[in-house]
Amino acid sequence: MPTPSTRPARKAVIPVAGMGTRFLPATKAVPKELLPVVDRPALQYIVEEAARAGLGEVLMVTGRNKAAIEDFFDRHPELEAALEKKGDASRLEAVHASTDVAQVHFVRQGEARGLGHAVLQAAAFVGDEPFAVLLGDDLIDARDHLLEQMLQVQAEHGGSVVALLDVGRENIDKYGAVAVEDAGGDVVAITGLVEKPPVDEAPSSLAIIGRYVLAPEVFGVLRETPPGRGGEIQLTDALATLVERGEPVHGVVFSGRRYDTGDRLDYLKAVVQLAAERDDLGPDFRAWLTGFVADLPGAGASQA
Ligand code: UTP
């Protein structure tokens, strides 16, 4: 019989209760996780990523003003009937895709007290087994199999695994940063974590991005984690405690494409890139984009 911590992860937790202040005023009424990336909410890409990695049970941690997220993952019989009547099979399929992709459950975080506090709301759903956390505004390109690799690393080493990206020293103060034992390969042993350190105190330029595979022991630690940076209960602080206790925490250094759709510039990049690569919209969009870019002020100079 495998011990609980060596069971493979089967469940995914997606925290979507944040206030999305970087994207105001849009996020006053629309959750940032539902902002469309081409024609699908960012969140749908993320649920699809979890399902592709074999995590068919998904818990969303929602909050106030997030009812539209529950509606999106629910059936819509009137809309389905109208599309059926019109014989619009492709749109009907698109509508079904949001409900069929995974078994989606919801729990509410009464107050946005930080990512660590959001993850703690998943304790009853997760139970005593490792689980994945995917941030609802962090998009990883479908061709990069980051989550699958992290699940493999967790199955091999046990403990917890975080996704890392080298963001350069000058940007590290916006992220959780890690100290690592040996930065040689793309799987590293983590020896320390700190949330949003000042640039000159950061242990490395490796930042934690929005994918985690966590040991269930994190819940006990989170219950005892006091508010940290920004007055919020930080998941990074709980992981730092696990490291101090000698629990294995590994990092997978990601070198693929990732977009923080809660950030306006990254959001725009995601929409343009994914639209340009689409089979249906791509040819027309690329043709228009090429002309648009050529006409931009200074375009000729930068190509020289
Ligand atoms: P962010 O810090 O990106 O979300 O949290 P935010 O607070 O909504 O963003 P800004 O800075 O105000 O624009 C990362 C993820 O954690 C969730 C968010 O919804 C996001 O997916 N989160 C954050 C919660 O679920 N609860 C919280 O208390 C905080």
Task: Detail the topology: elements first, then pairings.
Elements: E1 11-15, E2 36-37, E3 40-41, H1 42-52, E4 57-62, H2 67-72, H3 77-86, H4 89-100, E5 103-108, H5 115-120, H6 123-126, E6 131-134, E7 138-140, H7 146-157, E8 160-166, E9 176-180, E10 187-195, E11 206-214, H8 217-223, H9 235-244, E12 249-253, E13 258-260, H10 264-277, H11 282-294, H12 299-303
Parallel strand pairs: 1-4, 1-6, 4-5, 8-12
Antiparallel strand pairs: 2-3, 6-11, 7-13, 8-11, 9-10, 10-12
Helix pairs in contact: 8-9, 10-11
The protein binds uridine 5'-triphosphate.
How would you characterize this protein structure?
The chain is of the alpha/beta class and 304 residues long. It has 2 domains: 8-137, Spore Coat Polysaccharide Biosynthesis Protein SpsA, Chain A, CATH 3.90.550; 144-256, Alpha-Beta Complex (Spore Coat Polysaccharide Biosynthesis Protein SpsA, Chain A). It contains 12 helices and 13 strands. It has helices at residues 42-52, 67-72, 77-86, 89-100, 115-120, 123-126, 146-157, 217-223, 235-244, 264-277, 282-294, 299-303; strands at 11-15, 36-37, 40-41, 57-62, 103-108, 131-134, 138-140, 160-166, 176-180, 187-195, 206-214, 249-253, 258-260. The chain has a 9-stranded mixed sheet with strand order 5-4-1-6-11-8-12-10-9. Strands 2-3 form a two-stranded antiparallel ribbon. Helix 8 packs across helix 9 (235-244) and helix 10 (264-277) packs across helix 11. 38% of the residues are buried. The site of uridine 5'-triphosphate has 20 residues, from helix 5.
